[in-house]
């Protein structure tokens, strides 16, 4: 599984997340970028390939070891640090951009993690985070079962068991109000839909992703 997603993530990341993140980041030449909870390091490697100076933080041993191994096999100048986002060591100075992709829903103490991401930025730096869209959580499973999206609760936080651990549902306003309370100004929200042509290539018919957004992608700038 780590190998399968090592190049550019899974189908959904390839088609829905990566293109938006890369567009929002723009030219990365000589930019210091933090991939906060980098997982297997796929995004770190894409960013380094665009001439960014990348630090990837990851606490999980297997994921960290895999990312380091990829750097040993094909060095790209990426520095990997094994750490918890809520307890970051000195990472060598502030960043032009910090990305936390699909990370905050996995962390129970997520406000500390978000604060650490924002504090790691230079003033004016760009903070990007992605989450499963809070309004359409578990989009594909409910679409498959009901032929449409269904939910019966939204307003309270609840746990979503997944193959690699528990995620936490939180509301849209919870995430957006927290990032603005940390001194960031929202610059863009993206709710990408799948190009119907790409849906044809999908391993299963992912028509839900054509009609409803599976992800929310948030761009914010640190103002102070
Ligand atoms: C769904 S994965 C996303 C990984 C990667 N950003 C990606 O898009 O493939 C969630 C990540 O959050 C990490 N994580 C969970 N709790 C964390 C914490 N307290 N601090 C830092 N990372 C954490 C996990 O180890 C995992 O790499």
TrEMBL record:
Top-level lineage group: Bacteria
GO process terms (BP): methylation
Pfam entry (one): Methyltransf_23
Keyword entries, A-Z: Methyltransferase, S-adenosyl-L-methionine, Transferase
Claim: Secreted is one of the keywords in the record: no
UniProt xrefs under InterPro entries: SAM-dependent_MTases_sf (IPR029063)
One function term, GO molecular function aspect: methyltransferase activity
Family matches, as PANTHER family: METHYLTRANSFERASE, UBIQUINONE BIOSYNTHESIS O-METHYLTRANSFERASE, MITOCHONDRIAL
Name of the featured protein: Methyltransferase
